[in-house]
Amino acid sequence: MPVSTNLQLEQLQFRPGLLNIKPTITEDPSVEELDGELLKIAEDVFNAAKYTVTAVAAEQDAQVQPDSLAADFKGALKSVKPEMLSQARIQAAELVKASPTVRQTVFGRYGQLPSQAVLNSGFERIDQGLTPLKVSPKLLGLPEARISVSLSDITATDGGLLIPQANLRVPAADFESAVHNSQTAAIESGVLDSNRFSQVWGEVYDGDPYSPMDSPEDDFEGQSTTDKLGLYVRKIKCEDETNPEWLGDDEIALAGVSTDEDGDTKKINERYIGGGFKDGKEKNYSSWRYHMFGMREGRYWPKKYGVTFILAEKDNGGLSTFLNNLWTRIRDKVKAAIAKAIEAAGGAVGAIFGSAEIGAAIGRAVGQLVAWVVDKLAGWLIKLLKDDIFKPYTAWVTVPSFGARWNYPNGQWGNPWSPIRTVRFSGFGGRYRLDYQWHLYA
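Structure (tokenized):
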């Protein structure tokens, strides 16, 4: 086949805009199930957070590190009813005082630590001194660089391991620098198993793949200036007032967290929705833009955005505030866990995260891992405290191009507004409905 034909096919594969394909925006579930090495990392972070809050619940008067997850949770417990605090203390104490074997079935590798060590170190440094989590760079779709030598050829000495020079492809004197240079070059070059990488982290394109640069005929060229994405709250409705209903109407507030295409999270300040909420009462909004994203950050597509709704009944709002702050702490731990796993497996962390393409793909997935951990931890708190909280809900949207659109109700493509979506929050014996809608605009 002529080279020019090969180039044309390659262009069509990575530039669907040349075929005038109309990109459609997709929306994902609040919490997607994870698998493989990503699940291993998320479960490990969840176990660390789970042990931290359980240790605090068992020793509610203990000193904890300031400005930490443990300190946040200790403050949140002040809003929990005394009888529930007492129950939580008993249940948590049984878990943290169990044998290390039992603790490890509940808290994973962190169960080998006594609870006092967890309180002293805090969630942020809980893994110091522990054997690093074993994660395969290959299964994460990342490049590897390693040397394979038969164990029978290796001799252990007091000074280290002796490897026969015949097994090396470089002079022994240059071995260390050669391995380091080879590893760094392999990662920085961007050479990786693209199929495996996309399976783990999702497809990543350098630049807008739907851009019709070379195509004079285009249906959405005039719409390509819509580089902002807004999320609008349309309605908040009380379908069932929280218990006890005879004590008075609910007072509702809404806070949140945003996650952008790079995995960065930002706190959305709490807004008081109002009092007087009881069965059937609702509040409608025509123009409340709850949050917006500028889509020109970063050059890699598709771009994934998330907005987490944290609904709170003001009389029970302590744990909701804790969940709001939790996102940033979990995000930092997830990023650190990925870095440590790569480092422990022999990967060059700086080179991997320094690669714009690889870093963008990993950053986009970080938000999904954080949402998974926060959701699991909220479920753990409900069990631990024997009380309901409104579990957070994250609205996710993936935008493949500046010219992407939703479909109209009749199925025709080209709508800058998403359909109105509905999520329900259950807790404290009540249920609330929130309607929201995405919008692309200039």
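Residues 1-12, 214-224 have pLDDT under 50 and may be disordered. The chain has two domains: 26-32+211-441, 36-125.
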